[in-house]
């Protein structure tokens, strides 16, 4: 009798654990702290954008890591690209180039056939071949590894006379795929959920082309330009603020935590709030 009770006890003990493990598969998130140690994006005085992106993305990573409903991946840490991605970019270089060239060809055909209408987008710097391999490589990886969402983390800037002066714009903007892109709808909803959280504390960008704060775009590789992200891979690129607004170290570190918390709340609302 005692043995039977013990077995029942054990069974009860293990049921919830089993349910968590065998239940809903976790939501897979890829965090991409924008730029890297070689090409660090914007700069204000000694502050480099790539480091800010990493600091914020790392906080978000730690929040997601603690929540078992998510499976989280990040491309970089303090030492550069993490092994999985560094290996992928070097070993799959040829495959990534083919993936990119095929996608571009297909898009050219669509445009020629009138199946895709090109729009004027916010101006983006053209990226080097290496950067484009990294960005297309991440899309290829995200498709293959069935990511549910890719979050690109950035701080903003615009052309200014010197990197030591304050600029005139402020506020955040979330770039999302244009309505003709396969992953636009779900990405847009995710963007809206994160927008609502960030907007509790931060104003939206005062830069003319980012007014409203939600910016559709069809040229950013990060969002799946040239049809390089599957419909199931949501992707957004968040410009959390203009870099020169975060010159003060205390302000900056406080902002990282708040922005990570808001983004985490937006992700939870989108994926789990019914
Ligand atoms: Zn950037």
Would you give an account of this structure?
The chain has 7 helices and 10 strands. It has helices spanning 2-22, 49-66, 83-91, 93-112, 129-144, 184-198, 249-272, and strands at 27-33, 43-44, 47-48, 70-74, 76-77, 80-81, 149-156, 173-177, 214-217, 234-242. Helix 6 packs across helix 7. The longest helix is centred in the C-terminal third of the chain and has 24 residues, at 249-272. The site of zinc ion has 5 residues, from loops. Residues 34-35, 41, 49, 154 line the site of zinc ion.
> Given the helix and strand composition, which structural class is it?
alpha/beta
| Tally of domains | 1
The order of strands across the largest sheet is 4-1-7-10-8-9
How many individual helices? 7
**Biggest beta sheet summary:** 6 strands, mixed
| Proportion in helices | 40-55%
CATH superfamily: Zn-dependent exopeptidases
The CATH architecture classification is 3-Layer(aba) Sandwich
Strand content: 15-25%
CATH hierarchy class name: Alpha Beta
Distinct ligands: zinc ion
Task: Indicate the CATH topology.
Answer: Aminopeptidase
* Global morphology: globular
- Oligomeric state, counting identical vs distinct chains: single chain
Number of strands: 10
Estimate the mean pLDDT confidence.
91
Order of helices and strands: HEEEHEEEHHHEEHEEH
């Amino acid at each position: 009798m005692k043995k039977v009770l013990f077995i029942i006890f054990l069974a009860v003990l293990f049921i919830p654990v089993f349910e968590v493990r065998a239940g809903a598969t976790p939501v897979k998130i890829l965090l991409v702290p924008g730029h890297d140690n070689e090409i660090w994006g914007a700069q204000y005085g000694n502050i480099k954008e790539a480091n800010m992106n990493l600091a914020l993305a790392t906080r978000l990573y730690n929040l997601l890591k603690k929540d078992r409903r998510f499976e989280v991946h990040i491309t970089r840490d303090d030492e550069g690209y993490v092994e999985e991605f560094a290996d992928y970019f070097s070993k799959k270089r040829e495959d990534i180039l083919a993936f990119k060239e095929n996608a571009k060809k297909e898009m050219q055909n669509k445009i020629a056939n009138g199946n895709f209408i090109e729009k004027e987008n916010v101006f983006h710097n053209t990226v080097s071949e290496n950067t484009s391999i990294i960005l297309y490589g991440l899309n290829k990886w995200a498709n293959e590894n069935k990511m549910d969402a890719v979050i690109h983390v950035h701080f903003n800037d615009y052309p200014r006379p010197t990197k030591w002066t304050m600029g005139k714009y402020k506020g955040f903007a979330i770039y999302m795929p244009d309505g003709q892109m396969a992953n636009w709808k779900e990405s847009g909803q995710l963007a809206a959920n994160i927008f609502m959280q960030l907007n509790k504390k931060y104003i939206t960008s005062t830069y003319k082309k980012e007014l409203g704060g939600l910016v559709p775009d069809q040229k950013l590789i990060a969002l799946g330009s040239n049809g390089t992200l599957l419909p199931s891979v949501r992707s957004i690129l968040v410009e959390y603020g203009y870099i020169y607004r975060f010159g003060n170290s205390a302000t900056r570190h406080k902002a990282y935590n708040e922005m990570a918390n808001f983004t985490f709340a937006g992700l939870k609302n989108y994926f789990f709030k019914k």
